[in-house]
Amino acid sequence: MRLLVCLMLAGPAVAEEIVVTGRPLPLPPGAGAFSAVTIDDLSVPSGRLDAALRQVAGLALFRRSDSRSANPTSQGVTLRGLGGNAASRALVLLDGVPMNDPFAGWVAWPALSGVADARVTRGGGLLPGALAGTVELFSGTAPARVELAGGSWGSARAAGALSMAVGEGALSLGGGVDRGNGFRLFEGGAVDQATPYAQGMVAARGVVPLGEGEVQVRLAGHEDRRNRGLDGADSRVRGADASVRFVQRSGWGVEAVVHGQLRDFANRTLVADAARQSAAVTLDQVKTPASGWGGSLELRPAEGLRFGGDWRASEGVTQELFRYQQGVPTRFRRAGGRSLTAGVWAEAEGEIAPELRLVAAGRLDHWRLRGGFVEERVLGGASLLESRAVGRDGWQPTGRAGLVWRPAPAWALRAAGYHSWRLPTLNELYRPFRVGAELTEANAALRPERLWGAEAGVRFAPLSTLSLDVTGYWNRLSGPVANVTLAPGLRRRLNLRALRVWGLEAEARAEMGRFEAAVSGAFADARVDGGTVAPGLSGLRPAQTPRWSASGRVGWTGEGAEARALLRHQSALWDDDLNTRRLRPATTLDLDGAVRLTGLMWLTLAVENATDTRVEVATNGALVERGQPRTVWLGVRWGR
């Protein structure tokens, strides 16, 4: 709050525009061969980055709930119907730094603020973990901005950002707090309560010229506390991030990054009785310290040629109390391990005919798993289990290639193929977990997931303010990690034979004076091939994977007022791998607007889920978890 007060007192003196790039190397021309969507405006009524990214149809978190009420471990992101698992199958980068959790692969969305724009590239990427696509986030450099708002369910949020010139460079500060009493997830019994949350983050970013390039430094910290609708069902995420990036744009293009992540996650799981009159603790994940370290280097010695290498090391250990009797834990578990991926890659592109450009890339990775273990013992007593996983390693070649043909200025036709991969997370390999009465066992023998895919698309852009993109694709994911039901109340992580998906995607954008509009739609026909491991799953859809998704956004900006509307739809989906628990379709409407009061001061009004649609998030067959109901926000904004 002190930061926000300082920003308010800074006054118009800091409103002068600061021109500092702080950006990565520019995209090579060959990037146009792959399906990508750029989001220039990430503002949405909830103020949530995860909600803003869902404007891209086909991009989904594991569940429909957002980063206020969901269990943080269900906040992994995927694309193109490649779901069915809470771990991310897409790689999230902020200023070139991986943001996926080093232990479990999910994303701490409340930790990501100060993001100005995003680029979502669908399909297999060059980096490990970019199995279904890559979500690139870019920090912004704004003069000064403060937002204060209050809303339904006792909600309140405050955020601020300030940038100032420092010599020939710049310093940006930002932070925010967000809290609320939450809403009831279940229309249940006496044991059910609201879902209070309290979240905060702070970040500092500096850009300093160095020779013919610049150094970009980012430091950030965050804390996220949530409750899951039962007294004591609390979770906590704490983290710190640091990164240094060097960018040189003249001569040889150079981009070098080193980064580090520290995380700690705690979570307590409760299960309610059938009448929902009482609840008991089944698992207390006391803490999960984890760390991730890495670096990357990209060189561009000549036009159309780039190559580089990168590495990432992850380590984490969960510490849990379980097997409760009369409310008292009787056993203690530790589980975790270490993983490492390192690889080199090269990409070349050029015109092979007039207006016909070819791009091709190859990559070779080495992966290693070490120190995997599970220990269980009676509290204050004897050891019950001491399991040590055999260390494993391997090599993984991948690559991609694409063509883009521009037969006329307004037209671009493209085709691409790719092979990508993902190493199972430490969480999937070593940590069993329980949700309610369902136990899911870990599996230290899980193999890496591998994806083969192809796509073709067309872009029509007769004007700089009008465009239409249509893409068709086919994917085959070999060895997908799934939570497979073995018996009632018991599941285990296993590699299935395959997951096959084909689909269509379309985006249209238009700007007409003060109006803008964008429409995004996606169809994904995803089918499981369980093989001999789970033959009963063959032909079914993966859990939490809709067949249809769409979004539409319209906005108007005037001299002293602005307004936007965001409509989103998801078709029905299944909550379980056996396709027995159906979640009905959901269509939501979000509205927001602002009116200038004076100078740089604005009055803001926003409504999430304006029609109060019942958004079904999860179900056990008898009870349905609900997503965010109608929420009204009123606030003020100072700055541009």
From TrEMBL:
Q: What is its main location?
A: membrane
Pfam families the record matches: Plug (PF07715), TonB_dep_Rec_b-barrel (PF00593)
Q: Which UniProt keywords apply?
A: Cell outer membrane, Membrane, Receptor, TonB box, Transmembrane, Transmembrane beta strand, Transport
Molecular function via GO: siderophore uptake transmembrane transporter activity
Q: What is any one GO biological process for this UniProt entry?
A: siderophore transmembrane transport
How is this protein positioned relative to the membrane?
Multi-pass membrane protein
User: Is Membrane given among the entry's keywords?
Assistant: yes
Give the TonB-dependent receptor plug domain ranges: 35-110
- Taking every annotated instance into account, which residue ranges of this chain make up the domain TonB-dependent receptor-like beta-barrel? 239-609
Q: Which GO terms describe its cellular component?
A: cell outer membrane
The subcellular localization recorded is: Cell outer membrane
Transmembrane portions of the chain: none
Keyword Membrane on this protein?
yes
Taxonomic superkingdom: Bacteria
Q: Which family does it belong to?
A: Belongs to the TonB-dependent receptor family.
Q: What protein name does the entry list?
A: TonB-dependent receptor
